[in-house]
User: Fold Glutamate--tRNA ligase from Candidatus Anaerotruncus excrementipullorum.
Amino acid sequence: MDYSALAELLYPEITETREQMEAKFPPRQLPEGAKVTRMAPSPTGFMHLGNLYGAIADERLAHQSGGVFMLRIEDTDQKREVPGAVGIILDVFDHYQLRFDEGVTRQGEQGAYGPYRQRQRARIYQTFAKWLVQQGKAYPCFCTEEELAAMRERQAAEKANFGYYGKWAVWRDRPLEEVKARLDAGEAFVLRFRSTGDPEKRVKFTDLVKGAMEFPENDQDVVLLKSDGIPTYHFAHVIDDHLMGTTHVVRGEEWLATLPVHVQLFQAMGWKLPKFVHTAQLMKMDGGHKRKLSKRKDPELGLEFYQRQGYCVAAVKEYLLTLLNSNFEDWRLQNPDAPLEEFPFTTKKMGNSGALFDLEKFNDVSKNVISRMDAQQVYGLLTAWAKEFDPDFYALLTRSPEYTMGILSLGRGGKKPRKDIASWSGAKEYMAFFFDELFTPAAPDPEERLTPAQQKAILEGYLPLYDPADDNGQWFEKVKALAAQLGYATDMRAYKKDPAAWPGSVAEVSGVLRMAITGRKNSPDLCDIMKLLGPGRSLERLRRAAENL
Ligand code: GLU
Assistant:
């Protein structure tokens, strides 16, 4: 077979040689050890936690080493493409403050290794495809869908492996004339790789996360270019990652299955393999079992969820880093205030089996992150979220910024800041009692150990004592005096020794006041809260609670 003639027949319009094309993408001049990574999403309109998880690894590896982080749009599958999807991808990068150095931006493309949208690289792929045909490493296949389906049926009947390989690779060695006749008849073809792999033999391979691995060689003649001349993922990524100088391919472990194909393609091109970092799947516990996060069942998989619920960027990134690197949490304990960028991220500390995403743990991380912010910062983020997602709450928060700042300052700062807020939507519930529009007085608590009469006595006894000028010490002295007067224990040590000797302690007494004012058992310092609410509203709530008993 004259492979050059075949190549000419298939791709007459491709005039550049492989060498000329490669010369357009010269090796990068980067310092020793600099890593080049890329985030390569498909524009399907759905950005999920796994995308962000990988992007953080990409970004850290590149920027920590003085390298380059690219955004490449993998739009080869037109059927899955959704209008506006690239905008959604760019929004995610903006929102999570992941700065990329090259790729698709809102202002067009940036960088010398583009185009960065795969469909615009069709000529590039075809140039290398033509070269493969010239080498006898690729060939056209004119099988129709029906023929492939029929082949599948025969394979099932013979209990043979499915696919296009060996004797089933019916277009492997057809004569040039037959190809010409089909082309003249205007028939469509796909370009297939001529695999020389033998599944009895093993390919050895080292992944930076999974370690040393072995697979049977691939014997399938996979499709390189589809009938519209657009490549499959397999071919496109090999060409792109080589030309763009990617040093580390970070991608989901679902690609491990086709890694033998990719290794084969790099070898067929005579190119060095990049380093591969196959990231663990994100899992969750469900009824005692670990399972993959699912788009259908788990809203927390979609990145939109975090924006809508009002989780802050720093918290999401911080939690994903705890999943990405096993030593991150220890580092955070030692460096509570350091920016994330100071953490020495490494592929060595990445887990090689499913990363467990635990919403409760994430909330704890988020509470910690927010507890370290100052009130001004919280105010800015909270109101920005509310403006977009909860306009009524926004109106309350901004009615008196000073008042809201006062609320947000409670229990903040110091060695042990309070950790009440995990998300901005959750902040609404936490802050509700500060706003009459949102405050709902507590319903009677069946667990309350004091009788309604005892509670009433506390509330009524306290009313004449309250003086807004009191400081926290004076405030508490008065509560204590009232407790003593009503026969409650004020010496906690004595009380703990013999709780039955009193109807309760000063803690129960202040608990009744707290419930009346805030509607909850746990709150920041009650004296501070009453000061913020002001004497009018505080006394009114105490009175109303007493009346309702
Ligand atoms: N477009 C592929 C995906 O979205 C990218 C895989 C890769 O990073 O190579 O899964």
